[in-house]
Amino acid sequence: MVPGAARSGAGRDDLSTLNERPGESTDKTIYEQVQASPEFADLRSRLRRFVFPMSAAFLVWYLAYVLLASYAPQFMAIKVLGNINVGLIIGLLQFVTTFLITTLYVRYANKHLDPAAERLRERIEGAA
Amino acid sequence: MNAIAQAPVEGGVGNPVLNIGIFGAFVVVTLVVVFRASRNNKTAADYYAAGRSFTGPQNGVAIAGDYLSAASFLGIAGAIAVNGYDGFLYSIGFLVAWLIALLLVAELLRNTGKFTMGDVLAFRMRQRPVRAAAATSTLVVSFFYLLAQMAGAGALVALLLQIPNENVLGQGIVIAVVGILMIVYVLVGGMKGTTWVQIIKAGLLLAGTAVITVWVLTIFGFNLSALLGQSVSANPSLTTAAGAEKLLGENLLAPGLQYGATATAKIDFLSLGLALVLGTAGLPHILMRFYTVPTAKEARRSVVWAIWLIGIFYLFSLILGYGASALVPGGAQRISTAPGGTNSAAPLLAFELGGEILLGLISAIAFATILAVVAGLTITASASFAHDVYANVIKKGETAPDSEVKVARITAVVIGAVAIAAGILARNQNIAFLVALAFAVAASANLPTILYSLFWKRFNTTGALWSIYGGLLSCVLLIVFSPAVSGRPTSMIKDADFAIFPLANPGLVSIPLSFLLGIIGTYVGARHHVEIAKYSEMEVRSLTGAGSEKAISH
After folding, report:
1. ipTM higher than 0.85?
2. Between these two residues, B260 and B52, which has the higher pLDDT value?
3. Which residue, A22, A28, B265, B379, has fewest beta-carbon neighbours within 10 Å?
4. Domains in chain B, number
């Protein structure tokens, strides 16, 4: 990704309603400056490094579960403990992994994303 | 108890007067809250986003209240009672889906948008065409979802107020009352009032289902295996409405009762599973809830709270479902033939355990559920029309906020009236596919564009339009030509057969198609200077929260 590539100074979007606050309109380049900074690149890669592999992992795990339920019902019906079978256990494990990923992400974001995001935000809003 | 149960109307239980009384108390309490909340309802940010003043936990409870519709509450418990394990599969898709919202959407959306999904999709695109497209898909998704909720109200009325389906006037009046109450909540309370209704409802729903869950588990000495065993032995088989004999027993514990019959049914289930897991993060009424908190960090906390509450609720509904088939006299057979069909599982179980009082509470919660969900849908659809279509497409962004909110209120009344009429017309229709359709449209028309906008630099207006309209059209067309609409005894139109598409759920085709169209459109279309410059702003804002909409303090 090339930050701020091919920018045109005439590229103000006068159709936008999202960009009405003073500050942003007088010094628009602050976003491009920040986007080009190594701190921002670091924040972006830390976010993506966590959320992309994690999303891929839980989607694969969920689709594997759906496929097992559709195409291997006999396997899912194998009893493990009394009437509790493999299917129920894998199903409940989907709950466990969902809660687990949620907790892991919150810890990761608090530690590795929030402080960096806050520093950059202060820099932008201070400059505006 | 069985004799009393079947005395008043065939298969009906409980005391309708008590059911109405408890629901009336809920309405009175919530109306007071809504009127109090309406004191600070002046600006557009107040009306659409509750002044962005809710905390993460409050919003998380409200999200649970918005998400756990009657389909979740009554539908999943009923599906587990009658189809066993296959009902449980639904709830897992509905829960896992939240990880997409948590990891990829909620915080970035909160940081870049203002009131609607269209704000984010159009942020770095040409405003008018993209907003029009976003509003179109918002209105379609919300309308299908709304219709399913209102039509579901008819089935509930039959069961809980003992007004039979033949009594069109009686059921129509109840649906109209629900619709009018919903309009009052939305008009008076705006987003703040609607949010409080959802918070109160979620609290009642979780408390009510927790009581039943603990009650059922106590009966079985907190032994899940014993509960499952009783469900198996009490339900050897089921005679369906069509007269076919279905073997239950051990089959209740494994997948396959509902979806395992044929190769097509298996693919259909895969298609449904895909739509469920990818649809949630594209539902406009869920996305709009992220604007009611002050920061992205609070949006994250909302989703965390929502995931825990929704997950715990689905664990409860597993116990409710198997508990109903194990404990209700007559089991799955009686549940599937009671008024309201499989939706009756949770109410019948409540009656079996706690008699008229507990049934009355559960009935009131069921009505509150419909009310809270339709209010959330209505405010979302009206906000999208007023903010995206009226203010930005028609008036090109040159409106006073006051007139925008006025348009939103008028739209809410129109949507409410349409919902009442459609709900009465669709009373006895097979509408289950509408919720699946709403998820499929959300997953195909909305999610690809949301993800591309947030993460793909090259993405542009042409790609967004192709993806939104392509996903929307393919979804709706595939549904029209599917067995859900024609050609089967369970179809909406039984007497004709134009079902040339074999699956009832279009997601397996339309979701990948929409992702693909987004890519092709992007490379076909040109990038504007505006779009390139705006991408820097969008990316930096989405990750840092700089320049995001602030909370309003009154």
Report:
1. yes
2. B52
3. A22
4. 1
